[in-house]
Amino acid sequence: MADTTLPTRTLASITVPDTPLITAAIALARKHLTDVSYQHIMRSFLFGFAIADKIPPLQTRDKELHALGAILHDMAWDTTNTFISPDKRFEVDGANAARDFVVQQTAHLDFQTWDKHRLQLLWDAIALHTTPSIGQHKEPEVQATGLGIFVDFCGPDAVPGTITKNEWAAVVAEFPRQGFRDGVVGIMCGLCRTKPETTYDNFVGDFGNELVEGYSRKGHRSMDMIMALVE
């Protein structure tokens, strides 16, 4: 079970939980991510809390889990290849990395605070963060993680009535957006070049279609499989 009485701190005007596991997750992200990616995950973390704390159905979420989902959601963008597989979508690599991190960090505990259900929710929150048409129908932790990431891409009005101008300004001042668009485009194009088979059935392939010479989904799409069915 999650601890419902977590210590807190204020970061860039947003109140967030403050636990050793969250601190360790931030350190892991800082070690393995570029400045652009690190600033993105921290903004996503803070925006997610600003949003979810104002939406009643999300207020009862497991806040430590939400924090870890946001902070670790892009570990497959790491610069050391530590968390990058040759054959899995980046969202799955990130979800696996987060789950392994929590298991390793909590292995010494005398009691199990991270049971299989909590670990699965963490995995789902990260694996589904680019698929809101599914994620927003799941548990509050999955929803909250996705909303914070969504707002960082789409702006403060993306979830109306949740992010104030002052909150947005404070978070962006602490974790600037400079280079964000170009950084994300570079990462997506890199995935299309280095492991294209993980991009054919999802949005990453859109970058390949438009920006990567020689990239093609043809023959790899679900439509191609269906059209090839033998009557």
TrEMBL record:
Family matches, as CDD domains: HDc (cd00077)
Parts of the chain that traverse the membrane: none
Lineage top rank: taxon: Eukaryota
InterPro entries according to UniProt: HD/PDEase_dom
Matches recorded under PANTHER family: CYANAMIDE HYDRATASE DDI2-RELATED (PTHR35569:SF1)
The protein's name: HD domain-containing protein
Organism encoding this protein: Recurvomyces mirabilis
